[in-house]
Amino acid sequence: MAKKSASGSKKVAKTGKPSALIDTRVIYCGDNLEQLKKLPENSVDLIYIDPPFNSNRNYEIFWGETKEKRSFEDRHASTQAYIEFMRPRCVALRRVLKKTGSFYYHCDWHASHYVKIMLDQIFSENQFHTEIIWRRTNAKGLAFKSFPTNHDSLFYYTKTNKYTFNRQYLPHDEKYVEDFYKYIDPETGRKYQLADLTNPNRNRPNLTYEFLGVKRVWRWTKERMQKAYDKGVVVQAKKGAVPRLKRYLDEQEGIPVDSIWSDIPPIQSQSEERLGYPTQKPLALLDRITKTSSNPNDIVLDAFCGCGTALVAAENLSRQWIGIDISPTACRVMAKRLRRVCGMREDEKLWRIGRGFVVRDLPWTEKQLRKIPPFEFENWAVIALGGIPNKAQVGDMGIDGRIYPVSAMPKKKKDELAFMDVWYPIQVKQKDKTGRPDIDLFETAMMRQDRTKGFFVSFDYSRDAMAEIQAFFKRSGKTIIPLTVKEILEEQIAHKLA
Q1: Which of 18, 210, 238, 284 is in Cβ range 3.0-4.6 Å of 215 for a Cys bridge?
Q2: What sign results for the dihedral spanned by CA atoms 139, 144, 145, 146?
Q3: 403, 426 contact by CB (below 8 A)
Q4: What predicted TM-score, i.e. pTM, was given to this entire model?
Q5: CATH topology assigned to domain 3-168+257-360
Q6: Where are the domains of the chain?
Q7: pLDDT tens column, 390-434
Q8: According to CATH, what is the number of the domain 366-497?
Q9: CA distance 178 to 352
């Protein structure tokens, strides 16, 4: 018998074993572009992603019971920056998707039209099936001289024309039932309606015959009609009346789910499943996607899994799953959720026999980071800050990466897709203690690029370095934010990045 999860959805009884092809029930912490390289081609049945929207919003939230304050920012300078960030990731996702697999991209209006063009190029526009509109909530305020925006889009693609699709149904609304199912079977109490059995195509000689004294072109053969009559589901109100079919309400599948999803409310402040994660999606939304586009024991992948709603849905519905997220905090939140909601244990030994789950690649220690190659260390630091590393490994002129602030506005209106002119440089030094000469070089780079703010990453700083940072601000009004590796590992940098 199916059990209900804490969210109220039914939990499918466990079937099958973990995949022999790839490791499942694993949460990978890290950049999904790197993690996806570890997965073999054509290995995943269903991919759902809800990447950070290019939404110009800052999120100030409190995490669960610990009230640990975090700041989440969409740091994409422009639509092009966002698309260029997502394109290689979507290419990598298509590579790991099975030929029979399905792909869902969840986004909002800020970049959805550009996302659609990008996905058409990657998956082929012929493999695009539907733009699902999820109505998040009723409009709470009136936009100035515009329509309030209250929906998200989910772009649904498949890799080929052979794919899993299990149609989902909604129950009939009460008014429909009241208007059409007017009859009640006195023996069973079941509601039913009387449906027409005549054939709209009058040119069907093989279906033209007399039944119960009435000659018509019928939908069924005479043999089938007689069997249904013997069972009591074909009835005649009176002699000479056209026989009709008793269609019971409890035998109807309901209304097929279409492309407008207005029946799933968003996570509210009072929602039982609410974790405080800023972009948390309701479990019912992921339940529907998982049921529609996968079967028990299929592999579900969420490469931007945040607080893990897709993983919970997959686990509850007896699917295998893989989660990837760059945030160590998010990985810890989803691990806790899998333990609490799904009753799973985070245990290496249990995982090896297909019963538990594991979290891989949580941040390195300072000791480990001191030993890795310099360019690998630079990439780690830049990505940890939410920045974009320089592609060139030489001649960076004192700049190892860039952060694009969400508050920036493009100066060149003629090209809306151009990179914004506002960005902040990142300089990284794999040193025990950065000195003043390193700060001087970074100041030169900032002055050359005319940047108002920059970020410096090191293990520690000398007194002279810290004094020069203060003096530089007094001289130029430009700010250098010194960050330590320890602060990054312990995620104590949100207020400095704001």
Answers
A1: 210
A2: negative
A3: yes
A4: 0.67
A5: Rossmann fold (3.40.50)
A6: 3-168+257-360, 170-251, 366-497
A7: 765 554 567 999 887 655 444 444 444 344 567 899 999 999 999
A8: 3.40.1350.10
A9: 54
